[in-house]
Every structure is written in structure tokens, then in C-alpha cells.
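thought: fold this chain, then report.
action: predict
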Amino acid sequence: MEYSESIIYGNKTEKVTCQRCGANEHKVNGIIKYAYFLLAFISFYPVKKTVQLECTGCLQLTEEDELSQPLIQEFKKSLFSFYVIATKFIGLFLLLAMLGFWYADIRQENQQTELYLVAPKVDDFYFLDYRLMADNLRPNEKYRLAKVVDITGDVISVVYSSAIYSRASLLTSSIKSGQILAGKFFSAKRYDFTLDNLKSLRNDKAILKIKRPIDHWLYGILITKPASSRNTNTVELGPRHNNIGLAFQEATYLKDNFKSAFNEFLLSAEHDYAYGKYNLANSYLSGKYQGKNGKPNVEKALYWFKQASFHPNKSAIEKYTILCRKIDSCDIGKFYQELLDAGVNLQLN
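observation:
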């Protein structure tokens, strides 16, 4: 903290006689010493207030300690009004305002994180203190970014950034700079967590915060391509119906948009399109094929994930695997053998 002074020019007075020239007329000035940080014109708070008289005849200065106490109080009252003193706290007011906005942002961010934690979505980004999740890290390996790539029931699948950062702020920078759009920014290996696992990580402060793209944008970067921008005029009916279904799925402002999306995915699947089958299975799994509050149909979801797996479709294989492991009657070994018999090269994480 540094210090500076500002002068307040007041009225004239004839209540004091100059000891040098004998004149009675003096200019009454106030001097405020104030503290500041970096910028001298933005004061944080006043430190000292003094009165100084200047003779209009010979310019002789009379300091405060040469005046009587009643005169000092009178001059200070006229010089140092509430407004004048308040302006010397402007730096402190600005600091408090910035802290208030910062605290409000942090509070809102924490509230959003808690909401996103219990209702995850694909493309959510998890900011991790990776030191609380892994051992044998190098001294500068502390923070890592994770991205939700799939949700199957209560199993949330994420991929990690290939790099582990030394500062948490670099996680945000990697998004703002567009690094996350690079093909190898995230590792290929997927890690599965339940909601309880994620809540435990949050309680342990391993999950610092969660960010979710709004209309595909995050920190000014287009994270994913909107379904409406996909080609719906393609001649091939399978991809065409699938792209229309994706567009309906995102058009939440339309009534029964999920049912419309389901119908398009069904048409796409009937034209033997792998992604149409995959999205149809997801519709059955979410229950949205029946509308917004529909119930999941796991049996049909498994069927269509299995059909998509034979194309092959890696995501469908992984989702079938996750679901199958939760069902006692489902034989995962038999499923893998059927894939191998169909010529599918299994390379699962």
C-alpha cells in the first residue's frame, strides 16, 4: 500500500493575521493523505486530514499546529464534507463490489455444479483435482479435465484430458483457447462412474466444478455441432431420418418432440443405419419414446444396442456391456462371442 495527498481548496478567511506581512486575508485549504494501491488517483481510504492557510498577500503558509483548536474544527467542518470524505473510499468500495460479484459468481457456480452433478448430461465438463484421484503423479501433475461422453442408466462414462495440468486455471484456458477441439485432447479410454461415485468425489473436493455448454457453446467456443446444422437432405434414407431425429430431439420448444425424434430413429433403424439403431436404443432406454415422462424399456434398448453393435458401433457395444452387466439373465460372454462370430474386432476399454 502506498500513500498520496490531495488538496481541497476552500473559501477565504480574515480570522487569522499573517505573521510575515500582517495581512488578514488567507485562503483555507484542506489536505487529505490517503492510501492507494497501484493507481494513485483511486484512493482506498483517508489516513489523515489537515488544514493549511495561505496568505493572499505574501503566500506565507500557516500550518494547522499554529492555529487554535476552535478554528481548526471550524475549517475542517467546511472543508471535509461527507461527500469529500466518501470519495476517498472509492477504491475500497470498488474492491468490495468486485469481491461481492466474485462471491456471487462462485456461489452460482457451486449451485450449478450441484445441479449438474445429480442430473448429468453428455458433454458436461468436470474440473478435477486429480491428486485426490490418482497416485504416483509428477509434482506438476495436479489438475485434469474430464468430459461426459455417455450416460447409460445410472452409469456415467467420461474420458480424461491427455494432459494433466499444474494449475486449475489452465483447465479453463484449455477450453477457451479451443484446445479441447483437437482430436487427441481427450484420451480414448472411457471410465465409468455411478452417481454415488461422483457425489463422493464432489464431497472429497476432487470435483472442483462442472460446466455445461449452453446451446452447444461454452466460454465462447462451439463445443458440439448442433443437430439442426446436420445434412437432412441426404439421399440415403437411414442417415437422413437419423439426422432429422437428432434435430427433433434438440427442438425442446416443440410439442412431443421426443416422440417425433423416436419415430425418425425408428425409420432410420429400419433402413439398417447403425447410428439410427443406436439412437433408437437410447430413446428406449431414456423412456422418452413415450414422451417426456415415459418409462425406460431396457429389453428393447438392449435389442437395438445389440443390432447396432454388429455394424460395428463401438458406443453401442459399450452401452450394451454396461446394461448387460446389471441384468442377471444377460450373458455378456455370449454377446461377445456373437460379435466375434460376425467378424467384429473387439477392442474395448
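thought: worth noting. Residues 109-222 form one domain.
final: C-alpha cells above.
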